[in-house]
Each structure stands twice: as C-alpha cells, then as structure tokens.
Design goal:
alpha+beta; 8-stranded mixed β-sheet; 17 strands; 4-stranded antiparallel β-sheet
Length: about 250
Amino acid sequence: MLNFCYILVVACSLYHVSSAGKLTRQCKESKGKCGVTTDVSCNRMFGPGWVEHGKCCNSRPCCVESKCEDIPNIPNGKVTKTGTSIGSTATFSCFIGYKLRGNQPITCTEDGWSDYPPICYAYPDSIVHFKGSTYKFHYRNLEWLQAEIHCKGQGGNLTSIETEDENNYLKYVANLIPGFWWIGLSDIKTEGSFQWTLSQQLKFTDWYQGPPIQPDDEDDSGGSNADCVLLNPYKSYQWSDEICRIGALAICEF
C-alpha cells in the first residue's frame, strides 16, 4: 500500500510538470494562487474579486484577483481611486471653470469599470482621451467644411470612427453635451462612396437606417445632396447623412 501511495504522488508530480506546465506558468504570470479544493469557488477561498483562471495540479482552480484598467486623471480634472480590484471605486472632480458631466462614482466589476469616466465640460471646447486618441468636442455651430477647417487649424481633423468601441465612447460623450455632432465622413468626392477626411475606407458603420451599408442621398426632410455625416441625437447618436451647409457641432480628433 505504501508503494502505491508513493507511485500516486510521483504520478501527480509528473502530471503537474509535464501536462499542466503551461497552465501553472500562466497562473504564476497572472500572480494567481492554486485553490485548496475543486469544489469551492475562488471567491470563497480568497475573498471578493478572486476568479478562476485556468487550472493547477489535480484540477484545482488557479485563482487570480480580477482587476480593472488603471484610470489616469481626466483632462482638466482628476480622479481619486480606492484601487483597481473588484469593488474599488473611482470618483472625479474638475478644475475651477469646468463642470463635471457623467455618472460617479464608478465601480470596478468583473466586467470592468461600471461606466466610462465622466468628463470636465467647458464652453466652447471639452477635451477627452480614449485608447490613445485625443478628441475635442467643439460646442459651436459650423457647416461641415467649416468644422473640418476648424479642426485642421487645431492640428487635427474631424474624427474618423474605426471601431465599435470608439463609436460607443464618442456617443457617450456626445450625449453628455447634447447636440448634432459632425464627424469626418462624407461622399462629397464621389456620390454614394463615403470616405473619411483622410481618405480611409469605412471599416465600421453605424447608420441609423441600418443595412445596407450606406443611406440614400436624402436628408431626414426628404431633401437631396445630403453628403455629410453627423451623430444625430434624435437617432440615439447613430450616424445620419445631412446637408453639409447646415450648422452642427464638431468632434475633432488628434
């Protein structure tokens, strides 16, 4: 019997090294802990915020402390965090002359922060950052071409939107500063072929009309020559093609 137990221990050790090596290294790299049993959750073993991430020897869970991305200070304001683990909160404040818009505090959950950070608003410009890009929301009515000229004068262009994440964030900010917002999309050069101001082809669209990819050449009132695109508050800030000479606000990207 003693020999049998010895063989079983050796077998488990070999399994741990040879078969589960990658997962064990993954657990180490994730700064995880091996659970003591297979039938108790990581949350119960190590506390709130601990979740299973792979396996250790004997099918025990590899438990890691789930964390949210760090939140830097917001433009023209600051953030105060209690941490980045599950249950931590982040509260925000703005410098004198700016008004805070958005929900707070926000909380770290297993799915990430419970909401986008709020923004510090000031007339006529509010600046925000998202995934490496800087956006300026310019709160003055301009025709589409005037808006592009204004953005160029600031060192950027009317924004291009290339992913759903970027689109969702810009819609979030636009909703905090209600209005019609020009983006850098038009079919001025070739009717029916929409391009961004820097001539990029569309990788992502959010037309309120839905499929097909692009709308017809009419504005909401049935008029023609609707060549320029904006985020439309009456369509939950989805994209709408409108006449370029109407006045709307501008989202510049840098």
